[in-house]
Amino acid sequence: MEPLTDKEIRSSFVNCTKGEAARLKLPLDFAELPWEDLDFLGWVDPGAPLRAHLVVPREDGPVGVTLRVPAVGRTSAVKSSLCQICLTAHASSGVSLLVAPLAGPRGREGNTVGIYLCADLACSLYVRGKRQPKLRAGRREESLGPDERIARTTANLDAFVQRVTAG
Question: Domain count of the chain?
């Protein structure tokens, strides 16, 4: 992914107001991001921990999506979970259900779309083997190479962004 500026990031959001985009806090490590290893920029807002943000590069410019994170403290009987973007298996706390308002009038009416994502939004690092999930037991090995896993991750992410922007 090509590095983005603060202005490019804030102007990319399609499912929140300009005021909300202006108020969001960028990742704390923004200056040190490993852009060359990212397929998208994803972070939990340090100023609003129940908000997360994704910025996805597209041919016609980046598309930003704001998401809600469920409240902390919910327990789950699930021992492991799978991210729907990168297909990384995690302990149950390593995957969160994130909910995005749809873009446009349907989103302003309260319509949303949800997806299970790596809680740290580090899908790009997991598919490249630069970060390992805490859950090691039962980890499935894939026959896909890194480039194929990256392509699958990008396709899954594009499909999710399409669902948000089609609103």
Answer: 1
> Could you tell me the maximum CA-CA distance found in the chain, to the nearest angstrom?
45
pLDDT of residue 136: 55
Contacts of the segment 46-54: beta carbons below 8 A, 24+ positions apart = 47/23, 48/24, 51/24, 52/98, 52/121, 53/13, 53/24, 54/121, 54/157, 54/161
* Structural domain boundaries enclosing 141: 6-165
* Rounded distance between C-alpha atoms, residue 83 and residue 93, angstroms: 11
CA 38 – CA 51 distance, rounded (Å): 20
The Cα 105–Cα 1 span in angstroms is: 30
What whole-number distance in Å separates Cα of residue 46 and Cα of residue 165?
25
Give CA–CA dist 10/64, Å, rounded.
8
159 belongs to a structural domain: yes
The DSSP code for 14 is: S
**Each residue's pLDDT tens digit, 101-130:** 999 999 999 999 999 999 999 999 999 999
Q: Is the pTM of this model over 0.70?
A: yes
pLDDT tens per residue across span 53-68 = 999 999 999 999 999 9
Look at residue 1 and tell me if it is in a domain. Answer: no
